[in-house]
Fold:
Amino acid sequence: MNCEEFQAFGLDAGTSRIKSAEEAAAADHAGKCAKCAALAESWDAARAELSLFGDATRNAETPARVQMRLLQELRAQKRPVEIYRRGGMIAAWGLAAAAAIFGVVSWQNWRTEQHRLKANKNNPAVSAVGAASQSGDYVIVADEDTGAFTPLPGALPVTSDDGSIYQVRMQRASLGALGLPVNQDGASDWINVDLLVADDGTPQGVRLHEDATESATLQ
Amino acid sequence: MKVPDERDDVLLRRAAKGDENAFTVLYQRHQASLYRYALRMTGSAWAAEEVVQDVFMTLIRQPKKYDANKGEVGAFLFGITRNRVMKHLDRLPRELSLELQSNSGVSKEPVDLLTPAVWAERRERVEQVRGAVLSLPAEFREAVVLCELEELSYEEAAERSGCPIGTIRSRLHRGRALLMARLELLRDVPRRATAGR
Structure:
């Protein structure tokens, strides 16, 4: 080992950075070269002092207050995320609730509609009246006994629930007074009629009994 | 939940989601070495504290800055610390001379049963060495801190400094030479002062 190599490797003696063979060569060179020996001695003294400084700071740690500040920052960073998450949850629940309410209302409407249709099916007179009034095409045959109410001309479609039904006995000719065409052949016959009268007292429809003609004949 | 055994990158991911335990473990793993490096480089406990706090603040605010493909979390943290320290040294090159010795971060407690006089003498000497280390140019100082104080190998020191091994060896060589000269000078000052009386 020469002086240049000693300066490069020799001062690492006693550390893991130098191999034992190099260390032995450095020690050998220092034994022969006074300049390098003085350098090694000077460095040993400096290293001893450096180790004092190293030891004094070996166990140094960041003050605990730094960790507290950092945790506060971490919480502050986390908060907006939580707020967004909570807002998202609230929005999602709101949407779900709105969808549920919409579903329930729709289902109720559908059910009501179904009940209404079922009721109409059970009461064809009302549906016939409704259909006839909507189309404006009235087929009014006073002597035709359908078992359903025949709407009177000019009357609004009314269900039997909206008015009262009166059972009356009248001459067939009286139907003409209600605006219905009457067959003159049996105009004097007595018939039993169900008269549908609206809440305001105006007659809305008539329904002939099946035995109307017969009873009229009997009487 | 086995937080203490988790890898650093896993802890970082969890900390980024607000997991305080994960962050605490990650912090405890790295804070001391980063603080020591910053303290030995800046010579100021206050500056070292600021640097470490700044490093972990960056980790909290921008966790995505860490790229697992580029290295480990420890190396990433050291890289940020080094940058902060160098910025500090560039910004306040004269801070050392203005700073009180009581804020040097050097332990003031006697570690063993020394007499007050011996302890005071040793403490004074430590302060002188600290001053000598801090008087080195930043690159040389870093080489001395990493190789002599942190006792890293040349490879590790080169990796941390982001320079080739040859550069580290060269810097260490020059740093040692300067340090020896300054310490020799400091040793001679009291002697000369005494001799002058």
